[in-house]
Amino acid sequence: MTDKKVALLWRGDRDMRRKATAQSSRLVRIFEALAAQGIAAEPCVYGEEFADEVRAQLLKVAGVLVWVDPLSDGKTRVALDPLLREIAQRGIWVSSHPDVILKMGTKEILHRTRALGWGTDTHIYRDVASWRGEFPARLAAAGPRVVKRNRGNGGQGVWKVEALGGERVRVLHAQRGSVPEELPLADFLTRCESYFSQSGLIVDQPFQPRLPDGMIRCYMAADKVVGYGHQFIKALIPPPPEGPDAPSAQPGPRIMHPASAPQFAQLRAKMESEWTPQMQRLIDIDRASLPIIWDADFLYGPRDPDGNDSYVLCEINVSSVFPIPDDAPAAIARLVGERLTVVPSPGRLRRHP
Description:
The chain is about 30% helix and about 25% strand. By secondary structure, it is α+β, with helices and mostly antiparallel strands. The chain folds into 3 domains: about 5-95, Response regulator (Rossmann fold); about 105-120 and about 210-325, D-amino Acid Aminotransferase, Chain A, domain 1 (2-Layer Sandwich); about 125-205, no CATH class. It is globular and about 65 Å long. The chain starts with a strand and ends in a 12-residue tail after the last helix.
């Protein structure tokens, strides 16, 4: 193992692996920040067909930083995650460790942390019987719901569901380009059954009426906020009517803000002092095992009587967080330096003190 050398890993084909350089990578600013901290870093392009080459490369470094989505062009992490676990068992630091992703980066976290200040009326279905037996009554009683498969990205497996009466529903998929669809509730239930075999479970939450106010992506380096991204989104919002005067259906740009942004001061205080430590204790993850870069996506919840905003967690992203705020690369590099000094024992996921 080479001291102070890390690999930055992302998915690609063999040609991309052959041509990969720090300068040509989208992660170039992270490479630069690591170099400024005296940490050597090399690109590592992963593909299942040359996994043995990747394994040999990772066995020669002190740590690996991973940017690979759960689902990408039909490919999953089913082969990558065992490789990363093996690397970690050999004493090489991995961020984010697959076991940490399973604790933090799936939709189940929404149910496990529903009692925290970021939580809402969230329910979980672990099998087809509970899904068919419980969801229809909940939809009828509680109003529009957002249904989410346990693992996915890019809106895959996320649906807004509204009851229309007469056992029919209107659904809208969160993937870009989707349009509302009306169908029997029984057909929608059947459509989602495959999620149990693909990702283990389904959760649902109430639809947030303030969705048009946008989503706030709170970027975290371990347990500290490093910035925000605010974006007006179109996912789960019906497309506008067609015609020359129709408004644009495209989401707005994600506007980045520093951690010190005053409009998010309350959110920062909650994340650093309350919600992140509470989550760590609840799911049994110590600071040394937190991802070096992750984000919590929030929607605006109801305002309190004084007009202050509340925030509802709709997702935590751990597997492949990018783009990132301007201050994030330096924070990542500092954390890498800390963690290479004392590498956690393999698989350590101890409770935060």
